[in-house]
Amino acid sequence: MSKLLKNYDILIVGSGIAGLYSSLQFDSNTSVAVVSKGNEGICGSSLAQGGVAAVLQHENDSFDFHVKDTLIAGGYKNDPLSVETLIQEGPEDVKKIIDLGVDFDSDKNGELMMTLEGGHSRRRIVHHRDQTGREMVEKLTATVEQRPNITLCYNTLIFNIEQVLGGFRADLINADGEPQSIFARFVILATGGIGRVYRYTTNPVISTGDGVYLASKLGARIKNLHYIQFHPTAFNSPDCSEQFLISEAVRGEGAKLLNCNLEQFMHRYDERLELAPRDVVSRSIIAESKRTNSNKFYLDITHKGADFIRERFPAITAACLERGYDITKEPVPIFPCQHYLMGGIDVDLNARTTVPRLYAAGECAHTGVHGGNRLASNSLPEALVFGRRAAQDIKRYLAQRLGEVEVSDIPPDISGEEYKENYSDEIREIMQQAYFVMPDRDKMISGLHRAIEIEKELDSRKYAVSYKYCEAKSLACVAKTVLEGALKE
Ligand SMILES: Cc1cc2nc3c(=O)[nH]c(=O)nc-3n(C[C@H](O)[C@H](O)[C@H](O)COP(=O)(O)OP(=O)(O)OC[C@H]3O[C@@H](n4cnc5c(N)ncnc54)[C@H](O)[C@@H]3O)c2cc1C
Q: How does residue 402 score in pLDDT terms, banded at 50, 70 and 90?
């Protein structure tokens, strides 16, 4: 396990795709710390199944088609310049990660295989079976580990960042559980999503919106945090908060949605049927649930044959079997749950936030690419393109050094009363009830009041710094900002 030094050129908070790829852009003479509060592989990126959307061939596809699909899915609330940047530059980044060893599925002639997902008018999603994110994280981590200029630290929680002369002081609890401060001239926040502000989400435990909280405290602008995506087809297991996602690619390969009577129903709601964008499918399921007075819904791909399903979706097949369902033989129960954050820390085309030297990339950032609803498989390329752009922008300023900055040896004070409350669960319940697929305005108003009270309570007492306490602070900040934004719409 690497130990952190006191001084770095760059601090990257997060070791998902955005953090890892961005760290690889720096030269060997630039010192970079990549810090992750979780273990290796515990991040949203590792869970990505579907793939990476990129126009890699122009015979049947074009940048214009991909732009159009992205704008339609986003309800034209996207920033057109960010969309163009993503779509024009994404294919080069995909080629670069292939050069770094990422293995995407190819046919017997060595041609990359492209799949289709909801909202895409063309097959343009490259994938590694149904474990694309894991493959990318493993290969990029292996490359990062070979770079002597990069220090990669897991189980290290950044709980406070402050501006100091020439950069930032970051306070953290290191992997030994000890408090420590480090200095960095530039910070890139790559902390992922906010899913854990909901009771049911596809996001992993680390997705508590810490980047949004840290950036807010630094005074950075947060934008459209209430643009939250609910995935229509998570495996329905009400006893578990992390819902296993059944990728959109399953519908892309022809799976049908069925109601409690095992009847198809999408024709009632949208002519694109199962391939309508996620928000449309999620809303259709909730509307059908009201019509049938039942929460029972199923996904059925049995007509494709067991060999195809097992070969194309090995992880999904195995995960369903673990949960008692054979996806090759029977429909599996599904229901919508929180999945993705389109808003976030507001950044420009170079991933700069509104605070000098502070950057944000990946799911925690609002680039404007996704508008009101993300097109499937557009977030991994977004993490690549804007993670790289953050690093490229910083490189232009690295030569301007203000001299060495002295970092105090006195560690940050993390002492205080033990945090025993359970505000996190209370916040999750508020969000699940108030701001799910069909928001409830009265519950949003009362939920906002309560989130503000909880935030005040957490700030007014001197609790000892711990993962649980920091998580509650982040969730309170996220819930308050989401509900405030949504109520203003
Ligand atoms: C189940 C699932 C399937 C998906 N499928 C796809 C797909 O097929 N295609 C696609 O394009 N997108 C997909 N997505 C979305 C995509 O995976 C994510 O948007 C993207 O990977 C986010 O990458 P990231 O680097 O921004 O964050 P993450 O990969 O989530 O990484 C966040 C990092 O920040 C660290 N961190 C957070 N807070 C702190 C802190 N306070 N201190 C220190 N470290 C911290 C975490 O430990 C972690 O290392 C999927 C998401 C999920 C959940």
A: low
Residue span(s) of the chain under CATH 3.50.50.60 come to: 7-227+342-397
Strand partners, 254: none
Residue with tokens 């990359």: 112
Contact 182, 412 (CB under 8 A): no
**Residue 183, both tokens:** 């200095």
CATH of domain 232-337: 3.90.700.10
Instruction: Evaluate: CB of 44 within 6 angstroms of ligand 1.
Output: yes
At 86, is the pLDDT very low, low, confident or very high (cuts 50, 70, 90)?
A: very high
Phi, psi (5° rounding) for residue 480? -60, -45
CATH code that applies to domain 7-227+342-397: 3.50.50.60
Q: Which of 419, 418, 429, 420 is nearest to 451 (CA)?
A: 429
Active site residue ranges? 278
H helix intervals, 182-327: 210-217, 248-252, 278-292, 306-312, 314-322
- How confident is the model over 338-392, as pLDDT tens digits? 999 999 999 999 999 999 999 999 999 999 999 999 999 999 999 999 999 999 9
Nearest CA to ligand 1 atom 27: 192
203 Cβ inside 6 Å of ligand 1: yes
Domain with CATH 3.90.700.10 in the chain: 232-337
Looking from the CA of residue 379, the nearest atom of ligand 1 is: 11
Give the nearest ligand 1 atom to 204 CA.
Answer: 53
Indicate yes or no: pTM above 0.90: yes
